[in-house]
Amino acid sequence: MGTQLNASGIVLAGGRSRRLGRAKALEPFQGEPLIRRVIDRLSRITDDLVFVVNDHEQASALPISSRDIDLTYDIVIDKYPDGGSLGGIYTGLLAANSQWAFVVACDMPFLNV
Q1: N or C: which end of the chain has fewer CB within 10 A?
Q2: Which residues pair with 9 in a beta bridge?
Q3: If phi over 0 gives left and psi between -120 and 50 gives alpha, with beta otherwise, what is residue 57?
Q4: Residue 35 main-chain phi, psi, to 5 deg
């Protein structure tokens, strides 16, 4: 188990998926969606999670529920959906419950914490 950071985990999941053509967060990797692996890793070290998406459609497509995550979490709509990663980071920081944050993209299956 990782060291607790006393920080919010912010997951950027609001990409437009122009190149892939479908939601990258939901792409299967070793039998589970990419975002599930990120959630598993962040849940070990953060106090809460914030998922930043572009719209309500992306929010409803995320494979997460309170049954799956032991932490408090929020799904927030990016305040600057065309602002790239920086807009998502800004939105996530506004929604974070902690003074500190650990920010990652939803498509980082090899995240090691």
Answers
A1: N
A2: 49, 102
A3: alpha
A4: -65, -30
Mean pLDDT of 82-89: 92
So what's the pLDDT on residue 73?
A: 92
State both tokens at 35: 């975002």
**Cα 86 from Cα 82, distance rounded (Å):** 10
Q: What are the structural domains of the chain?
A: 8-105 (3.90.550.10)
pLDDT score, position 69? 79
Pairing between strand 32-33 and 28-29? antiparallel
Write out the two tokens for 103. Answer: 């920010």
Q: How far is CA 87 from CA 29, 68, 91, 108, 113, in A?
A: 27, 27, 6, 19, 25
